[in-house]
Design goal:
Radius of gyration: 17 Å
CATH topology: Rossmann fold
Helix content: 25-40%
Number of domains: 1
Number of strands: 9
Order of helices and strands: EEHEHEHEHEEHHEHEH
Largest sheet: 7 strands, mixed
Structural class: alpha/beta
Oligomer: single chain
CATH architecture: 3-Layer(aba) Sandwich
Strand content: 15-25%
Number of helices: 8
CATH superfamily: Alpha/Beta hydrolase fold, catalytic domain
CATH class: Alpha Beta
Length: 244
């Protein structure tokens, strides 16, 4: 495994899953990105990576800079910077056909990356964030940034920063970008998600009817209930097998 650095020199921690020998040819490299305050080792991300590898895909799951064991300062973490991180991971595997899977804010990163022209050939959004400014205001509107007490969801390792808030406000929403995305796009979203409402994914579908939207009953934001992580993975694998 080689070291991957973003353009700021931060080391990006990643795990590499080699594909099982299934007899089928899987040319794609699947890259999985996580959501806000998370990392590459969330249980459902690991489960998805293992399921994809078992189906013959080579998989990279990585932590955005400032998160998990990646280098960098969490206070600099924001969607725009995470697009740079994703670009660095893609560039570390030249010549590969890339499928990107992004969860929550990582889903918004995928839309931004495609809007910037990153070479992603297929895109999967899991409970993907749509309205970034609304999300920040709803979840952290009563938190004072850049203070010892100003943390995201009470996590001391995740301080709320002005950098994050300003970037979320500047982006505002990825909805206006949705119609311009022409690559195959799958959204898997739980109907019991209380962090990113499923109605936001339905707005994306209205903007881009070519999207394949799968709604999971009993699934929360991180696919932790009712075996929804396995169900989510099966939908992703089936869709990948049906698209080119």
């Amino acid at each position: 495994m080689e070291t991957i650095h973003n353009r700021f020199g931060d080391n990006l921690d990643y795990s590499h899953h080699q594909p099982a020998d299934t007899g089928a040819t899987r040319s794609d490299l699947v890259i999985i990105g996580h959501g806000v305050t998370a990392n590459k080792d969330r249980p459902f991300i690991v489960s998805l990576a293992e399921a994809l590898a078992a189906d013959g895909y080579e998989v990279i799951r990585f932590s955005f800079s400032g998160n998990g064991k990646s280098g960098g300062d969490f206070r600099n973490s924001c969607p725009s910077r995470e697009v740079d991180d994703l670009a660095a991971v893609i560039e570390a595997f030249p010549g590969r056909t890339i499928t990107y899977v992004g969860h929550s804010m990582g889903g918004a990163v995928g839309v931004l990356a495609l809007n910037r022209g990153l070479p992603v050939k297929r895109f999967v959004s899991l409970s993907g964030m749509v309205h970034t400014e609304l999300f920040a205001r709803t979840e952290f509107g009563d938190v004072t940034p850049d203070t010892p007490q100003g943390t995201m969801w009470g996590k001391p390792e995740c301080p709320l920063s002005t950098t994050f808030l300003e970037d979320m406000k500047k982006i505002d929403s990825v909805l206006p970008m949705a119609a311009a995305i022409t690559v195959p796009w799958l959204i898997v979203h739980g109907r019991q998600d209380d962090v990113v409402p499923i109605e936001h994914s339905r707005e994306l579908l209205d903007a881009n009817p070519a999207i394949n939207l799968v709604e999971l009953d009993g699934a929360d934001h991180v696919f932790s209930e009712n075996n929804s992580d396995s169900l989510m993975a099966s939908h992703v694998i089936r869709w990948l097998g049906q698209t080119t």
